[in-house]
Amino acid sequence: MSEETYSALWPRGEKTVEIAPLAPRLDTLEGKTIAFMWDYLFRGDEIFPILEAELSAAYPNMNFVGYTTFGSTHGSREGQIIADLPDTLAEHKVDAIISGMGC
Amino acid sequence: MLRASAAAEAAGVPSSSLVCDGFLGQGATTAVGLGLPNLPMAKVPGHVDTQTDNELRDNLTSVTVNAVIENLTAAQPAAVMIPEPGPQDVVMEGSFDEINRFFYENGWSDGLPIVPPTRAKIESFLAFTDLPTEHVIGKLLPDNREATVWNVAVNGVMAGCKPQYMPVLVALAEAMADPGYGVEHSGNTPGAETLITINGPIIKDLEFNYEQGALRDGFMANTTVGRWWRLYLRNVAGFILHQNDKGTFGNTWRVVLAENEDALAKIDWPPHSADFGHARGDNVVTISRFTGGDVIASVFGQKPEDMLPYLADALISQSGWQLIFTVGMADGSYTPMLVLSPILAETMAKAGWSKGDVRQWLFENARIPAWKFEQYIVEFTNFYSGGRSMFELAQLGKANELYGVSKDPDRLVPLVCDPMDIQIVISGDPGRTNAQVFSHNGILGFPTARAIRLPNDWKNKLTGAQ
Asked: What is the pTM assigned to this prediction?
């Protein structure tokens, strides 16, 4: 007796996003404004000051926008913070962000 | 964290995402779902929580800082889209074993045998909804895939559901896609698992078990709908272990918890779904994500005042780090669940207590010293940094005022911000004096309910299917 065969269909869903280009990278960090964004987890309050000190040592004219400007990116306000982000970045003339912490 | 980076990139602002070693894999797959497979990440060696201050500093200065600079200034590799099948494409023809092997090897199965999703099987499910086949229910993070009536049915077939379960599955997909639930967090490291509760006449229509063994596999409706949930998280939301699902330990999917509405009717208590605005008699599913729980065996007593201290103690003992969802991360979103066996609820009701009375008593008595609460959210976990006490947070408007009435570290504070935050469900062995407590995952799986829409001619269709 031959075994029954089946034609099985794909169980997934179509992706709703296309691949998007990254933002153009900066030619240098010298003189640029960097914003820190934090999910308020995993020692970010210790890590960002170290990064700020190290980057400032390498690029003396960098400026920084602290994570408290944005609030936690992993709390009940995450959606609003992200929705507002283009305006917030523009308001503070931010050239690049450093976002943490994924652990 | 990566969603913030993606938003910045979309706004034309370059980003660097700080990622511990163990998060790199999840970061990479999450980035694909965001449409930015080349989203740059700066590695932080090891896991920061176990490093000394000097180790952390050394790791940052020797590895992370250079990676950040490169992320922000160097051209990143080009991204390419990997082609995928279409939603209704046949992906494999073969025997039962061959189909199962192919699905498993492609990450589309949970490791148990699946029912091959053939067109005929899928169409038998579609007959149990009036929605169009291509109807888009929503999009599911982190993969950002469309949840459709079609793929709900495909996964229903695979899970071993009966076609007539389709209205329940559609309602669950709608709840999963509700932004208030927070499906995107389903791969977080605590590895919580969703519990589906169900109310309404559909419990009996579909023969859900709501009595003895209510949380055990063994009844087809409870078991297969629970399995569908996890398959759908896998195949449509994209939660796959070692990729987007970072549960440190995780749980197996839970079977559906059906409430005992006969017992509720006897004592005139409202159903669980009433907490979410639904009327008695409505068919409703509710989803919440729970980190764990325990059975509370042999609740002894002849009146509520005898029984409730033990239940309050259980709520306390099952609430630890999760209190960050009461104060700290997402205030007031901690909603633990207490499942009472019918005899416990009946004993309380016989003394004249409503469900609201029980909640109020638990709210007022399931309390812990403020110092202990702070220990969970600060000292033990470092979830809340900055050195502020709950009293100070309340004074600053960053915690519910309940936590700011005194500076006394020994004052007793509630586990939740409101009596309604304690979910109560009646189910299980009607004659046994046991209860069950589930601790909750806050906004990372917030209670979300959806009405189940039955198709026209439901009763006749159901009779035909049975």
From this structure: 0.93
